[in-house]
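Handout, tutorial session.
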Amino acid sequence: MNELSERLAATAKGPATKIERETFLGFVNDPNSLACLRSVLSHPAIGPMRVRLSSFEEMLAALGAMRSPKTVLVDISGEDQPLSALMRLEHVIEPGTRVLVTGDVHSVGFYRTLTRNLGIREYLPKPLDPVQLARDLVPWAMGNEPRVDIHRGGLLIAVRGLAGGVGASTVAANLAWLLGVETRRHTVLLDGDLLAGTAALAANVAPSSGLRSALETPDRIDPLLIERSAQMASDRLHVLAAEEPYTEKCTYHHGAGHALIDALRQRYNFIVADLPCRVFGFADELLGLANQNLFVADLSPRGVSAVQAVLAHDQGRSAASHVAFIRRPHQGVSRASIESALPDHLGRAVIDWDKSVRIASDLGRFASAKKGPFRTAMLDLVKNIGATMETSPL
């Protein structure tokens, strides 16, 4: 069967009007999905978006009375014959319209029928997940197509401090520890700074020369090199970090980061990359490959401004984004005071940073191993990135 958009050409009637087509229009039939879509599509790079609450019949009538948007999201949940219902779209939308579908059917076969036989561009099962929407819907709503990730295997989470010394390396190390030790998922903590990185120190393991070797000779990157270079912090947590002298000149070959991540994805479920605040070379390539971004900033007006700036700069990236605000002792800024300054789709957490966190970091220990506010906030981050706990919290 031909793609849905191609079959529409045979049924289109009359000349196209000169009315400008909307970029995106969405229809859902339940309030929870409507609220989720509106929060995700409030991204500053998208601008005002139209999402309506309507039944399938009301959606057909609305589309039939207007010029089709470039991309439309339709809701087939509750339809007795969802495939037959979708065929009725032929008569109300124009050729070339990109159709996205949401529904309550959870079946791989159904997904394949929609995307391979009917030409549906994406199927989003309910209940809608903000992280999935940010990855799979936002690019369509912006008039682009989602980045096709040909990689299989682990997810790359880029942790980036928006100022020096804000605590991003500690957050990255503890996130990796929770993923590897508490969720029992194979995890590697990757240091994106060959000269001044602290990932090895944070995990109390020895740095390795293997990372520099891999980046200087990417053709040598293979599972055996990864096995020799990654240091074990626990049975399911490894650390891949270098600590090269400042006097040494490290030659980075563009594409080496891509080759390294390809190899790591085959071995690990999660790759937590600790990136410097200024990204270039290796770190910049990692940022471009990330499935999810975690920005770390102080809970202050300056920190909020830094988050806004980096979101504006990275607005073309399709990776889901989260922000962790570090709240120092006696800091008077509350979380409520910053909520209105950031987009609703942005996952966020506030981490209380007391003396015990700093001491644990200095000693190469994981502060999230002990019960307390820091651990609670870090567990929220684990949930935000989509990992589930296999052991009970302390």
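The second record follows below. Compare its token runs with those of the first.
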Amino acid sequence: MIHTIWMKIAYFIILIISALFSVLYLGEFSVLLLCILIIIPVFLRISLLYIKYNLIVSVKTPVTYYHRNKPQSLQLVVKNKGILPVSKAMAFITCMSIADNERIPIVINFSVPARNVTIIDLMVTAAHCGLTEVKLKDLVIYDYIRLFSRKIPKSSPTEILTLPSGEELPYKINVPCSITDEESNVYSKLREGDDPSEIYRIREYRVGDMQKRIHWKLSSRTDTIWVKEYSFPIKQRAAIIIDYFSQEGEYVDLMDTALEAAYTISMAFIKQEIPFNIYWMSSTSGKLVWNEIHSMTDLNNCFTMLLSHPPIQPYDLLSHISDMHTLYATNAIYYCTPRFNTHDIDMIHTIFSQNHIYILTSSDYSKQNIQNEKIIFIRESNISKDLEILSSMEVNRE
């Protein structure tokens, strides 16, 4: 902007000198020079107007989602349909986190060739999970000698989704078996076993297969002998409840920590092939919803659904989870929350008295003098160490 002001001052000085020159020294050259200097601003303003209506600007996200505290790639795409290039353009972009309304300003200087598409890569690091609104606040184009400028019409805001980063744990989490029943009616989708009550898959006969596993009905309809493979029964089943609600101020960081803990545990369960469900309160339906997780794709899809909408206002979670009957059939429940309320936690233990309950909270409850190894304080910078207690939990029936 300062550079543009100096160019205007320089131009007016030259224009005054040229006017004096044409008065003091009569002749064709001096008059022609003055006319050219007068015509130049007219041409520049017309050219800017032409360029303005031939530029299409947008902000795009190359991927569906990003991960927290990791550089995220954005693209400012500028399409110039005209025959005149843009020698200088300046874009003012703001990234605003929906979680705490924190704004990150970005300023970019660039040029745009004629009849071409210019893509400028931007790197942004989101500090919070959830949605971040990317808005092109202003795009200003300048003429070739920086006398004039024009603003390009703004494009619609773009939202980027940031998921937790997670942390790969160097140990296994011990998930307890059922307290009341050691028999399982849940079977692995990744591993075969010897339980004849559930078929894992059907394959062609191989030498050495037992005759009793031959699928006679299917084999009779084809020219191939087919064999049934039975499933592997799973005695370890888990559920993760995410207490996701709107926070303000410092509590936004506590919510991020609780989400990181839930994501980290989920990664460990996937690695250990432990089936589990994730439960949370939907901000659109106002009801408790859940996703069955078997892979990282399932996990990222689940967190995409969870974080694609702003968190709801603080709510009574207990009144909703008590009606979710699938939770009662789960061996272990991991409740990830940024808040700590002794009354609510007592209620959870009462409701799920036949389940193993673990409270993972990012709220420091040390001043409340509570001694319970199943209430775990999670710190942002020490998640792996804080969760290590889950590797030494008793896995047998109580």
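Points raised in discussion: The helical segments are 2-24, 28-52, 216-221, 251-271, 296-307, 318-321, 342-351, 383-386.
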